[in-house]
Amino acid sequence: MKYSLNYFYQSGLMVLLLFVMGCKEKNSKVVSKESGTKANTILYQSKDFTEPLGFPSGIEGPAVDREGILYAVNFERKGTIGQVDSMGKASLFISLPEGSVGNGIRFNSKGEMLVADYTKHNILRIDMKTKEISVYAHHEAMNQPNDIAIMNNDILFASDPDWKNSKGQIWRIDVNGEATLLEEGMGTTNGIEVSPDNSTLYVNESVQRNVWAYDLSPSGEVSNKRLLLTFDDFGMDGMRTDIAGNLYITRHGKGTVVKVSPEGKILEEIRLKGKTPSNIAFGGQNGTKAFVTLQDNGNIETFQIESPGRAYRMQTKH
Prior knowledge:
Elements: H1 5-28, E1 29-31, E2 38-40, E3 47-48, E4 60-64, E5 70-73, E6 80-84, E7 90-95, E8 102-107, E9 113-117, E10 122-126, E11 133-138, E12 148-150, E13 156-162, E14 167-173, E15 179-186, E16 189-194, E17 200-205, E18 210-216, E19 222-230, E20 239-241, E21 247-251, E22 256-260, E23 266-271, E24 277-283, E25 289-294, E26 299-304, H2 310-316
Antiparallel strand pairs: 1-2, 3-26, 4-5, 5-6, 6-7, 8-9, 9-10, 10-11, 12-13, 13-14, 14-15, 16-17, 17-18, 18-19, 20-21, 21-22, 22-23, 24-25, 25-26
């Protein structure tokens, strides 16, 4: 049988195309460590989750409740909290009291929402059923409680930056709402998080570009402060851990999220569409969906990771 050159040329292109498609399919299949099944999911590729400019006034504090609903502060205007369904549709959840502006959000074991109110030096508590808002903690010595982290026993920690003077503090808030100053005279404290085994507290300093780690006792005492990581460029904002102990740090101004091992080794750097990520949370069906708030685009981006987020696992245990 005779074959033309055009036949070989077309056949060669077909073989090449099949090879490329096969490689792409192979790379897109991720094995779940929990189920052992394959899913056609590409890790670490960020895309828009909500429409741009839905949160135009300082979007921050993403957190997912036990029902899987995502929340973030400053929906449509300052002083509000928005909620986002699984399809990325955002709507108003609640308006905070006059003069209050939220930043970090966390949920305790009762399912209550805790919000850092930086303008009034408060930690607010919101009943998710009645939407009643109360002051959970207050201290006049706070600069502006910014981000918050929580232990499994509901002990809370708050970063407290003084942006004007590039300084900061760390506070512990016990379950009775009493606030205790853990450390002062730090750099510009911002992102704060607890390891999945509750034995380590992480705090970053945005201006100084340092990430610190502390040993953490069951009662919330800190000790053995050590430098985990320093960046040479750009700032940092919020950060969260997954159940494997990895730390995900938002790089404000660089437009990335950095995945860091518990030993301080950079494992991945995830490129975002926006340039000013302010914080990160985890949710989705298996807790492996990252949600990142972008202040320049006024929206939330999302990408997949391997291990569920720590906060997601805490919520699903109750």
